[in-house]
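User: For my dataset I need records formatted as: sequence, then structure tokens, nothing else. Please produce one.
Assistant:
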Amino acid sequence: MYDRISSWLDDVLTQCVPEDVVAFGFNLYEDEDNNWSMEVVGTSRFDREDDDWCCDEVTDFGTREKPLTWEQNATWDHILEEIVLSLKEYLTSGKHANVLKDKVGIGVGFVDGDIEIIYEK
């Protein structure tokens, strides 16, 4: 899974990040028939105590129309765990990890669910 995420992020993060983006949020979706998708948004605020920070979206980098999609027979909590591990690995060794870590924070979670903070300055 890491290779797919890494390749996708390498493409997404070549775009210019708007100046008013202070954090990144990775939104996960459980689609039908063991299909999953993920988008990344840049947000105008970050608040460890308020998960709604991820709703203050500045840009979706075009990933809402072109999300990362995959098929996997797994539970939502397994998917979340796998994505968190892959994103943490990207933050350690990914081509554009510095773009992500340049901001105040990074969170990941299912839409309408809790946000797991995976990086904070």
